[in-house]
Write a structure and sequence with these properties.
single chain; 202 residues; mainly beta; five-stranded parallel sheet; 17 strands; 23% strand
């Protein structure tokens, strides 16, 4: 099945074509600047793209990397990592995020339990809910000064995390952001923090 998305469309929303297994071809115009989480999950189109390259990129949006293995370098052309892009990618051991990336979507690296470290570049201004939740082998994370909010469950169950650097630019830390980070022994809270939500360090 072929689906043509008309020119002028700017967003393909969350799970827009989720589970459309017979959808084998999608023409996505250059006007599309946002592709929501799991928008094309379960389609033949995605399976075919994964066979060509485990990093599925559309209009500079990294849509999917769930079949990646080992160490992965995201190309410099990528400006955003879609929600669930690497969700439960247990074969991923390390990922290099380029300075071109400005946003990391919800659950982008959720359950990537074999990642040992992650460097979030200064270009990133937005990190979604549960973005690194369940990355239980990450030991340290540096959050750049470009980030102003740590969202719900961002690093939840990162059970090997021993060190986290929170910049002074951060004003809000969401619920369960560091919940079940059992080895996190010391956290410096910036003076500018105005909101720490329920269960942040529970």
């Amino acid at each position: 099945i072929l689906h043509n998305i008309p020119e002028g469309v700017t967003t393909i929303d969350n799970r827009a074509f989720y589970g459309c297994s017979k959808l084998s071809e999608v023409n996505i115009p250059e006007s599309v600047t946002r592709i929501g989480e799991q928008a094309l999950y379960g389609t033949s189109w995605l399976t075919n793209k994964q066979a060509e390259n485990p990093l599925v990129i559309v209009n500079n949006i990294l849509v999917d990397g769930t079949t990646c293995t080992g160490d992965v370098t995201i190309p410099d052309s990528v400006t955003s990592i879609a929600g669930y892009a690497f969700n439960n990618c247990t074969e991923l051991t390390n990922v290099t995020i380029p300075d071109s990336v400005t946003s990391i979507g919800n659950s982008a690296f959720n359950g990537c339990r074999n990642i040992t470290s992650v460097t979030i570049p200064d270009s990133v201004t937005s990190i979604g809910n549960s973005a690194f939740s369940g990355c239980r082998n990450i030991t340290n994370v540096v959050i750049p000064e470009s980030v102003t909010e740590i969202s719900y469950g961002t690093f939840q169950t990162c059970s090997a995390l021993t060190e986290i650097v929170i910049p002074n630019t951060v004003t809000s830390i969401g619920e369960r952001a560091f919940s079940s980070c059992n080895k996190l022994s010391e956290v410096n809270i910036p003076e500018g923090i105005i909101d720490i939500n329920d269960g942040t360090f529970m």
